[in-house]
Amino acid sequence: MQLPTIPKIGQLSKKRKITAAGAAAAAGVVLTVTGLQATSGTAVAASDPTGHTVSTASTAAQQAPAAAPKADANKQAEAASATSVPQSALVAQPAAAKTYTNNLDGWIKQSLDILHAHHIPASYNGIYRNIIRESSGNPQAINLWDINAKNGVPSKGLLQVIDPTFRAYHVAGTSWNIYDPVANITAACNYAAAKYGSMDNVYSAY
């Protein structure tokens, strides 16, 4: 009876190495001298020079997570950039200038804003009532027959103010033209406030 031939240890190791190398090549895996490094996600079992079995899938899996934190950081940076408020939006913008209509209503409202800014009392109704009585709302009105006219200083404008009174009670920020509606109202109200407490208290010639 012939006994079976038992391969030598060196031959067995060599055959195992060749089998591992062939399997790795077939799966597209690169084996380095110092160890195994997979170029694909294919799981291939191979033996290293010491005869231990190494899985290439675990090697690839260990390398993959390294890129994830960077990708997450990039996504967070893009999200922060998309939601950030532009610097220009944080700068206070100047308020738009208030506008007034070029009629009796607008003149009174503009004058009231100036009067209130200078702490001069007056109300819309008080001003309107006296304008209608004095000039019927005509900013170019002039009185050429009363005592002031006889004295050479006729009353002028919406609230029939004489030149000396207009100059004395002129309010800063308004025109020096006595026929200017806003300037005329504001100066007259300033005078009425000084003499009567407010234009609201005037019900006749003043």
UniProtKB/TrEMBL annotation:
Pfam family, one: SLT
Gene3D superfamilies reported for this sequence: 1.10.530.10
Disordered: annotated segments: 43-84
InterPro entries recorded: Lysozyme-like_dom_sf (IPR023346), Transglycosylase_SLT_dom_1 (IPR008258)
Stretches assigned to the Transglycosylase SLT domain: 130-205
Keywords: Signal
Biased amino acid composition, Low complexity: 55-82
N-terminal signal peptide: 1-38
Name under which the protein is recorded: Transglycosylase SLT domain-containing protein
